[in-house]
Design brief:
Elements: E1 8-9, E2 12-13, E3 25-32, E4 44-54, E5 61-67, H1 71-80, E6 85-88, E7 95-102, E8 108-113
Antiparallel strand pairs: 1-2, 3-4, 3-6, 4-5, 5-8, 6-7, 7-8
Length: 123
């Protein structure tokens, strides 16, 4: 079965391509954490790969991806943990996201629910 083939099973049709197989966006992003009360928040620029899918259980669009290893991202993750932050892509509106676990290569998972920071393939 190729990556683009639909998955068929006893529970009915599943989404056609697993969310990790096709990137909806790959490129730069800007992460902005809420102000800590000590001045304006500092944006962090990073490289990201994102994809997403509509979750049939809740009907919401779930998007996620990986931030490439970067010292500024590591410092941001240490400061904000899993609290919400804003992610901006070039030409897009900011959306709320959360950082997840650090992978063995030093990058971080990023995810959100609802409107993705990129133009959704379903649009």
């Amino acid at each position: 079965m190729s990556h683009g083939d639909a998955v068929r099973g006893g529970l009915g049709d599943q989404h056609e391509v697993h969310e990790s197989e096709v990137a909806a966006y790959r490129g730069p992003c800007v992460l902005v954490a809420p102000d800590r009360g000590d001045g304006a928040p500092e944006p962090v620029t990073a490289q990201v790969t994102l994809s997403g899918f509509v979750q049939p259980i809740d009907g919401a669009y779930h998007w996620q991806g990986r931030l490439q290893p970067d010292e500024q991202v590591t410092a941001l993750a240490a400061r904000v943990g899993r609290k919400p932050l804003a992610v901006h892509l070039p030409g897009g509106d900011p959306v709320t996201a959360r950082l997840g676990e650090r992978n063995p290569w030093g990058g971080y998972r990023i995810s959100g629910t609802g409107t993705p920071p990129y133009i959704s393939p379903e649009d």
